Amino acid sequence: MTTKSIDDNVLSQLYHEHHSWLLGWLDKRVQCRLLAEDHAQDTFMRVITSKEVHNIREPRAYLTTIAKGLLVNHWRRSAIEKAYLDKIAAYPEALTRSPEENAIILATLQEIDDLLNELPINVRKAFLMSQLDGLTYIEIGHKLGVSDRMVKKYMSRAMLHCLTATLS
Amino acid sequence: MLNQDRIHIPPTVLAQAAEWFAVLGSDHVSSMQTQQWQSWLEEHPDNRAAWSRVEYFTGKFQDLPAHEASAALNAPDLERRRTLKVLALFGVVGLSGWKIKNGRYLEGWTADYQTALGETKTIMLADGSKVILDTHSYLNVTFTANLRQLQLISGEIYIETAPDNTGLHRPFVVDSQEGRVRALGTRFSVSQQQGSSQVSVFADAVEIIPVKQETKKLILRAGQSTYFTQEQIGGIRSMRNIEHPAWTQGILLADNLPLSEFLLQLNRYRYGYITCDPKIAGLRIVGAFPLNDTDRILASLEETFPVKISYPLPLWIKVLPS
After folding, report:
1. If you classify domain A118-168 with CATH, what class do you get?
2. For residue B194, which of B94, B311, B77 has the smallest C-alpha distance?
3. Which fold has domain B250-321?
4. Which of B29, B57, B117 is most worth mutating to test chain A (most A CB atoms within 10 A of its CB)?
């Protein structure tokens, strides 16, 4: 009870002192007020759920760090969406897909990206080449400039990452 | 059900499952290996549970349209954007390690100058040079004792250089992801595209140096335009008599442009995505369209051509035959 109310106080102080500053910071970067407001709200949500409120020594640095993470996520999502829609535009047969189907595919792509995002770039690439492009380990090895044994290690690492990331 | 599976699988079993996944995906799988995998599966229910998780992931990929998924997940922007995410996460974990070094090359949104979609902006540099940023462009500017350097992260810029006012005669360069464009005169534009840079010269000349083939330099002169990659420089095209890129005057200029290409250009100035039905992609567009009202441009297409415009999703515009 008491701990909670202390948290609430700290939180509401944090909010009052820094919310509009954060909003300005975000607005400058996304150049869209609505989006900036969303991100600012999300940032504070993260602060609340992180339960770190009273450990924060430099609030603005802390808030911007979280906000940057959110922005990067947002941009990754937009980049995927854009690349996907660009590709659709180039493939006439894809135009026949319904909006729902497209939405499901996009959601899956973003889920996969979230999952693979933290892997080293070569591991991610190898995994995608094998699973999406159907390349053999030798072909992947050629493209990445590594041996097919290394590709096999990449594959195992990527899969282990998927298996464990979803467990935590 | 799935949750139960999740909780009870020991990490060593997951590691084994991942290893088997890698083995069975190899170019040559022996029948011995297949048998060993079979007996591993039957050894323990955990092993089966772990394997069903593996199949869950591989199944996700099988349901995707390979071409589009591959393009989306390999979008070039993703590589640039991951570095910062890792840094940002690191910042959250280490509460004391706040000083995040934003490499100037990492991100558009840390850029010195930027424009929103549909916006253009004119900036005057310290040496008196003028730079105009086209829609959705990101630019860093670094002046040192021996170089005037612009770094174009994305988008397009038009430049009118001024003689160096410090009396230093520092070279004026624009760096893109593909290489360096060195000003040998006054007026030119550089555009960062996916995997290539486009250069157009409106007065005097520039020198192009691809980043991986520095010996393959090329001098591009007034009225010429070309593109280059990290390794090579494309063919030279001559432009009609123009003094500036049309966009610096707020105009989208179409000189016998296929509709599909025209829509791609237009899309650079507005949110959302415009797609074009292949049946009408080849329609030729001629005209000068004011960019301050892109809705109006779309409407005028409908008036002038046998096309109709539909909106299947918010922010998604489809141009179809009427």
Report:
1. mainly alpha
2. B77
3. Phage tail protein beta-alpha-beta fold (3.55.50)
4. B57
Termini Cα distance of chain A? 29
Q: Where in chain B is the domain with CATH 3.55.50.30?
A: 250-321
Of all residues in chain B, the percent with pLDDT exceeding 70 is: 85
Query: Model-level pTM?
Result: 0.46
Q: Name the segment(s) of chain B with CATH classification 2.60.120.1440.
A: 108-238
Which pLDDT tens digit goes with each residue over A22-34? 999 888 887 788 8
Q: Of A149, A145, A148, A155, which is closest to residue A120 (Cα–Cα)?
A: A155
Name every residue whose Cβ is closer than 8 Å to that of residue B24 and which is 6 or more positions away in sequence.
Answer: B33, B34, B37
Beta strands in A5-55 (DSSP E): none
The answer to whether the beta carbons of residues B107 and B80 sit under 8 Å apart is yes
Residue among B123, B243, B259, B225 nearest B251 (CA): B243
ipTM at complex level? 0.74
Q: How far apart are CA A23 and CA A35, in angstroms?
A: 10
Q: Which pLDDT band holds residue B8 (cuts at 50, 70, 90)? A: low
- Would you list the domain boundaries of chain A? 2-97, 118-168
Mean per-residue pLDDT, A105-128: 88
Q: Indicate the fold that domain B108-238 takes in CATH.
A: Jelly Rolls (2.60.120)
Pairing of strands B121-124, B130-133: antiparallel
Interface with chain A: mutation pick from B4, B7, B20, B27, highest number of A CBs within 10 Å: B27
Per CB-CB distance under 8 Å, the chain A contacts of B4 are none
